[in-house]
Amino acid sequence: MQLLGIRVSNSLVWLWLSVLMFAADRLTKVIAESTLQEYEISPVISGFFDFTLLYNPGAAFGFLATAGGWQRWMFSLLAIVMSVVLVIWIKRTPREIWWLNSGLALILGGALGNLYDRVMQGQVVDFLSFHFGSYYFPAFNLADIAISCGAFLLIVDMLFFEKKRLSQQE
């Protein structure tokens, strides 16, 4: 198959989902940074959902956020290694294995979105904030949603489809 004049294996077509997710993540972060001040709360659904611009130098839930700076490079290296692994995994997986490939592609797009922030700014841009009463769930972004949805799709594939595929190969 050719894509933009470049010969691409069928399974690598799934990388377009990664590119789309990366682009959506970047666009929403640019909009958030251009319309909100850090820590500013802009209610969307009063008492439940706000846009709130935050910067997270750590990982999910602020893990290692106060570690002194080395975590930027550790998480960046981890994202690069995982991205290479994900591309190889997608390349080796038949194109028609929808649940697995879409999950891998979403995780890749999300990982690259947060990697971009880490490399360019030293921290990840978060702006989606959900809360219930006085309980606030840690702020997150579209890249985080992509990673979570991708992980969910991998679990669905593992629980419902992988065993069937393996038994058909025997």
Describe, in plain words, how this protein is organized in 3D.
The protein is an alpha+beta fold. The chain has one domain. The chain is 56% helix and 16% strand. The chain contains 5 helices and 6 strands. The chain has helices at residues 15-35, 70-92, 98-121, 142-160, 162-169, and strands at 2-3, 6-7, 41-45, 49-56, 124-132, 135-136. The protein has a 4-stranded antiparallel sheet with strand order 3-4-5-6. Strands 1-2 form a two-stranded antiparallel ribbon. Strand 3 and strand 4 (49-56) form a beta hairpin. The longest helix has 24 residues, at 98-121. The two termini are 29 Å apart. The mean pLDDT is 87.
Query: Can you count the helices?
Result: 5
Low-confidence stretches: none
Give the overall average pLDDT. 87
**Straight-line N-to-C gap:** 29 Å
Strand order in the largest sheet: 3-4-5-6
Rg (C-alpha, Å): 18 Å
Strand content: 15-25%
**How many discrete structural domains?**
1
Percent helix among the residues?
55-70%
Order of helices and strands: EEHEEHHEEHH
Globally, the shape reads globular
Task: Give a short summary of the structure.
By secondary structure, this protein is α+β, with helices and mostly antiparallel strands. The protein has one domain. It is built from five helices and six strands.
